[in-house]
Amino acid sequence: MKRFILSACLLALALPATSFAHKVWLRPSQTVFSGPEPWVTVDAAVSNDLFYFNHFPLRLDGLEIVAPDGNTVEAQNQSVGKYRSVFDLPLTQQGTYRIAVVHRGAFASFESEGQRRRWRGSAEALQTEIPAGATNVRVTESLGRVETFVTNGAPTLESLEPTGEGIELIPLTHPNDLYSGETAKFRFLVNGKPVPEMEISVVRGETRYRNSQDELHVVTDGNGEFSVTWPEPGMYWLQTSAEDKQTKIPEAQSRRMSYAGTLEVLPQ
Amino acid sequence: MQLNRIAPLLLLALGGIAAAPAEDLQVSVEIPRLNVSEYHRPYVAVWIQDKDRTCVANLSVWYQMRSSAEGAGTKWLPDLRQWWRRSGRRLNMPVDGVSGATRPAGKHTLTFASDDPRLADLKPGRYSLVVEASREVGGRELVEIPFAWPAESSTTKRAEGSEELGEVTFTLKPSS
């Protein structure tokens, strides 16, 4: 069962946006906080609709939380349920926290005993799980980042420093300073560098209560920058993907990277 | 945002009356009497912003100051959404002479002298007085009154809220 869930998550993370309907997301209870020690609680799931729990929980194995001072902190009360995972985080520092689930894995297709087979799992398991004598082996590495941001007090930038690995969102407008009717600007970095013409889809939550996805499509410019004018307040989901050949797994021919972020847009 | 009987800080906020002879800027804020099943006094912020909506003077913030496990009501300050964005999130509450306890329904008058340190640095130009109110299990409302500084003649401007704020009046007198 656990393997099944993990596989489903990796599948969702690994495939480009056009080929899967499932959305991977973290949803914080709120993004703007005040007080000596407010707590945020976060849901994590893979679902068809935003932000409803109707498919799989998102495993928290790759949970990485960066505090305002740049250090890593641990989530509390982690729990994986039938349809969602949950964790809490006390915001003991003033400033912005980056909360991310980073998945590293691989998927492979090969022929064995005359059968076409597919496999997904961790890079470590790759060696042992593909049978000896398999032919037509194609291995793809996958690196997915699912994240959100929360701020206690005034927004800060220390926790948003890029790691240089995979797709990362760089704020030109702070992700916890978004208001409906205003235009926010961001930059995507792929392995620390801007990539033009990345296709980004932006969807507001509460899709269950409307008849269309109302998806916005934006594209990065030469600096990897893009802007979004928020049509109305709500929790938004932002997704993009990219591919390269900078694999860390020797057997892999290519690497697929994905990014999914949740941003809260407040009313004016 | 519960009923609060602590008044000393409220007096502190109004300290300008006693300390300064000139009354150059006066703001009156009406908190309407609401017939709702669960009433809480509103959080209210009064500030002056420039044409870029940068807060240039924080005049008053009323919130639940009584100690609680959650830190004297500061948890709900971001509900004053625009004030929080323009200035609140960078402040260390409480702020002397600015923050005070929540107030009951009725008209409340704030008076400031032109030599008040918050106004002394105001450059000549166009500004807005902004009053924002937000109430627990209630609504939120923002009222804005544009004005020119310094005042050339005595002027009084009015604005009316529709839900969480009643009449807001703003009086400017030239410094004598």
From TrEMBL, chain A:
Q: Which UniProt keywords apply?
A: Membrane, Signal, Transmembrane
Keyword Membrane recorded: yes
Mind telling me what this protein is named? Nickel uptake substrate-specific transmembrane region
Q: Where is the signal peptide?
A: 1-21
Q: Name one Pfam family in it.
A: DUF4198
Q: Which domain of life is it from?
A: Bacteria
TrEMBL record, chain B:
Checking Pfam families in the record gives: DUF2271
Matching entries from InterPro entries are given as: DUF2271
Record keyword Signal present: yes
Query: Signal sequence span per UniProt?
Result: 1-22
Start and end residues of each stretch annotated as Disordered: 153-176
Q: Does the record's keyword annotation contain Signal?
A: yes
- Keyword terms: Signal
What is this protein called in UniProt?
A: DUF2271 domain-containing protein
Q: Which organism is it from?
A: Stieleria neptunia
